[in-house]
Amino acid sequence: MHPALSVIFFTTASGAGYGLLALLGLLLPLGVVPADRWFGVAGLALGLTLVTTGLLSSTFHLGHPERAWRAVTQWRTSWLSREGVAALVTYVPAGLFAMLWVVFDRTDGINSAFGLAAAAMAVVTVYCTGMIYACLKPVHQWCNAWVVPNYLALALMTGALILNALQHLWGGPHRLVGLLAAASIPLALWLKERYWVFIDTTKPPSTAATATGLKGPVRLLEAPHTEENYLLKEMGFRVARKHAVKLRRIARAAGFAVPLVLTLIALVTDGAAAKIAACLAVGSGTLGVLVERWLFFAEAKHTVMLYYGAVEA
């Protein structure tokens, strides 16, 4: 599949934003994150900005972005529509959570309920995002049980890395946040590795023979047309195997290995060294997730390509 930059940015930014919002909503009532209102301003502003810019960027891939609002009307049958509805609903508890914390300096009581509601809706929204791809049966690399857990784990990891950096910059880091960030990295890596193993070792259910209903080996006699069309551009994008292997190594190193080492350094040090390590972990993790997300689209093959000469998809 063609890896559209707007969708890559959307899934990366919104995932990190929702992960950060969920952690703030869950950990503030427990006293794990600073209750200071200016910390709330920084954390909530960053989380909501990531979510909003990510959602807006997703419309750039549409032929008519001005009609994006119509997507929410199909929530009964479309995971894309359900994601839009969930994203809009999330703003309600998140907005109330932010208002009570930042404006009225309330971090307990009713605001704890709003925080938990915002966290729950953030998880629901990321789940819907993953299901947009996991429900597409024509794409073998997406329609499997590893896609949604990967989306949720990466949202948790990137959100935890950002929260850990914010706490270090604020001067009052809580070890639990650092430990959570450190623990989320190997979890996300394990799920990503399982996903890669699955798409590398599981044969796609569709072949040229099953697509045409013919028995025996089937090969293309003549291409349907001589010029590249929309399907070939969007559904027939190909990434060389050697490039995919190299990009997976970059994703492993930048997205998981380096952030884990930097997060552990931030845990065992203090002062400027800890702050720099925590911030660098966010930068490296973001770069790695961007590469991972590019591969997620580039390695996907749509079954329509069977009619353009592909042996299997």
Structure commentary:
- The protein has 313 residues and is mainly α.
- It has a single domain, classed as Formate dehydrogenase/DMSO reductase fold (Up-down Bundle).
- It has helices at 5-27, 37-58, 79-103, 110-134, 147-170, 175-201, 208-212, 230-234, 241-268, 271-298.
- Helix 5 packs antiparallel against helix 10 (271-298) and helix 6 (175-201) packs antiparallel against helix 9.
- The mean pLDDT is 88.
What labels would you give this structure?
mainly alpha, globular, 10 helices, Formate dehydrogenase/DMSO reductase fold, single chain, 313 residues
**Overall average pLDDT:** 88
Count of helical segments? 10
Molecular shape: globular
Helical residue percent band: 55-70%
Terminus-to-terminus distance: 11 Å
> CATH superfamily, please?
Formate dehydrogenase/DMSO reductase domain
By secondary-structure content and strand pairing, the structural class works out as mainly alpha
The whole-angstrom Rg is: 21 Å
The total of beta strands comes to: 0
Total individual domains: 1
Identify the CATH class. Answer: Mainly Alpha
Strand % is: under 5%
> Which second-level CATH architecture applies?
Up-down Bundle
Residue ranges: pLDDT <50 for 5 or more in a row?
Answer: none
Under CATH, the topology can be stated as Formate dehydrogenase/DMSO reductase fold
Topology pattern, helix = H, strand = E: HHHHHHHHHH
Give a short account of the largest sheet.
Answer: none
